[in-house]
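INFO batch 0412 | record 1 of 1 | parsing
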Amino acid sequence: MVIKPRISESGYLTFKYDKTKDNKAIIASLQQNKQLNFIAQPYRPDILTGEFSVVIINGIPLYGIKRFPGIFSEKLDPVYIRFISLPGVIKKEVDILKVFLLKKFRVFPNICRVDFLRLNAGYEILEVELIDPDLFFRYIPYGMRDKAISMIYKSFII
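INFO prediction complete | emitting tokens
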């Protein structure tokens, strides 16, 4: 499984806990940082081939990114994908998620990122990231920078 802080800042204190291996260093690091709230997630080996992320601002999907987190494998540069060019199943899942969030909370987050992992049968949502600004502002495609910043600004002044 993967153990990481609830806000992991692009891999900060993220560990792959393998019950068949010696995890003393992981346990020691968790104990040294027990003031943080940690979460556990299933480890998906498919993460090594990258994950698809969709950045959504004010309910509008702006762009996709194929990311290679680099925590458990070689870190590679992100590849930007126009939202319209993403696989249809990802676009459909984003629409379903938007409906769910609006129905459940009556509002869509100002900004979020939805991460998908390709599996044999299609795609699985890994997480919906709402908090870590690094995940939104460090890697904005150059052609989207002005639009994304303008949309974020408008969401806070309305």
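INFO post-check: Residues 88-105 form the longest helix (18 residues).
INFO record closed
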